[in-house]
Structure formats: C-alpha cells, structure tokens
Amino acid sequence: MSLDELVCLREPSRWLLRADGDSLQGIGIYDGDVLVVDKALEPLDGDIVVVVIGADFCCKEYRERLGKLDCPRHRRHLQPML
C-alpha cells in the first residue's frame, strides 16, 4: 500500500509537512518526522495543529481553556506561546 492510499493524499485539503525542531518531542513528534495535515478538520482540544507565525509554519498542541486558545510548550525550558 502506498502512502497516498494510506492517508488519501489526493484530497485537496491534505498535505505533508516535515517537522523541524524539537519543541514537540515530549509528545512523540521529532525533528524530521513527516506529518499528514488536513486543513478541512476543525481542531479539538489536544489536537496538533499547524499555525503560521510570521512567515513560518509551526506545529503546536491546540488547547482551549476558558474560551481562549492556548499553545503549551512541551520542553520544560520554554514558556507557553500564548
């Protein structure tokens, strides 16, 4: 079975993204991992989402707390983004 068949990459809302960095190692996403992104899905609490910060794409954990978006960091030495 091909990767295309496995994750239905022919859907126009799905694409691949290579992880770059170590901020999500705490939840099992490592530098160089290939992620399948589906922009048609609405994020749920705890999902990994792709956000645009400036000209960069970043993968973050989506947390909805008290009606606000929270993107916690998974490395102890880093502060939360929002």
TrEMBL record:
Residues 7-65 form the Peptidase S24/S26A/S26B/S26C domain. Pfam families: Peptidase_S24. It comes from the Bacteria. InterPro entries: LexA-like, LexA/Signal_pep-like_sf, Peptidase_S24_S26A/B/C. Gene3D superfamilies: Umud Fragment, subunit A. This is Peptidase S24/S26A/S26B/S26C domain-containing protein. It comes from Pseudomonas synxantha.
